[in-house]
Fold:
Amino acid sequence: MTDPLHSDLLELAKEAARRAGELLRDGRPADLAVAATKSSPIDVVTEMDIAAEKLITGLISEHRPDDGFLGEEGASSTGSSGIRWVIDPLDGTVNYLYGLPTWAVSIAAEQDGETVVGVVEIPMRGESYHAVRGGGARATGAWAGERELSCRPAAPLDQSLVSTGFNYVTEVRTHQADVARRLIPLLRDIRRSGSAAVDLADVAAGRLDGYYERGLHPWDLAAGDLIAREAGALTGGRPGERPSRDLAIAATPAVFEPLQRLLEDFGAWHD
Structure:
């Protein structure tokens, strides 16, 4: 049985993600411009990232004023309740800036350092993904009702479709491109969506056999990692480690270990 607290956190996360998604989808200005840059001149923030994070933190604080926050656009507080919200108000900002549809709102709730709730809202698909630790993963979308998620059946690595992402720092992405070049002959193919949250949701939904990326922050993967795991995928980083900035992997049980081994052999976690 789901913990009542976790159920309450889930409903609040779903509502916050829905409202932020509507703001981003319906409120995108025709003359949307870059408001700031982060790791490099091509790693951008828009005014809508900032507005969406304010909406999310404001709504959550109204209901749970003692909770902490960690948000991509600067929300940071420790709180006193043992609950911390990890928020990416707009994952896939460059896609959003260019009018591409692959972007998402990602909201996770941690209890005493462990992710217990995750929601990924993908407004341009009309899809919402969510999970509670130990309670499975589910989604709503164009199909009827709520669907229980399950990752793809077992397939050998050479028949697997795997997604990845690239860093905005030139030296890092050059190395990542070399890793992808070495992987491509060993897989069915590689995809690159531009949103970690969407990729992790797609692993959960059975649309990808695997996903890996270097350089992710906690807000990029907290919600999606839980959703993928609750759908039966394995997640991790380098062998024996949890997902981290060095490396994050999510894949079906059949694909996870061979993919992780290749990424280790290819030095995917360093320049």
User: Anything to note?
Assistant: The mean pLDDT is 92. The radius of gyration is 18 Å. Residues 4-26 form the longest helix (23 residues). Helices lie at 4-26, 47-63, 93-98, 170-183, 196-204, 218-230, 253-265.
